[in-house]
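[09:14] KT: can someone run the structure on this one? pasting the chain below
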Amino acid sequence: MAPRIPREDSRARRGTSVTALRGWDERPQATAAILNPALTAATITWAAARYRTTLKQAMPWELSFLVVPIILHRRTRQDLPGNSNTHLPSWITRSQVTLAGLPERATQFAPHVREGLRFGLRTDLFALTTDGGIHATIKANMKPPKDTELRTILTAAATLGAIFAKAGTPINVYAQFGVTP
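[09:31] RB: done, structure tokens below
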């Protein structure tokens, strides 16, 4: 399971762990724009849809905690291979400098991923299978919107979903990135 990040408030100062995010009016504008639950859920959805078409099974929900910090971090997203034929170890070896901050970023993004998972489930972007997989409800041949940045994000998420489908178990994928689940 992904780590929890406590929010700094009076409960956290008293030593109580708090995992809630700040209210929308308290979030920095840039953070609220890129880490909003709809975009996070869409990113997970496109990765899960491509994972399913590649491996013929639902994407394990744990991979969402890697998909989001990889795809919504511009530099890492831009370093992603252009196609899904690249094997995960090859990409990691080639991109060590870019991926160096991924473990910390995954920890920081975890509350936003959980928020996106809840949003995606509530809005039927995806459903959970009985074995804990994410089954995307979008059609495999659906095209991303014309908006340039959104198109780039969703296309990259789909590519990463296919790469993850060929990379083995979630534990194996986490280990290759040096991230502790």
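[09:33] KT: thanks! The CA atoms of residues 100 and 146 lie 32 Å apart.
[09:34] RB: yep, looked fine to me
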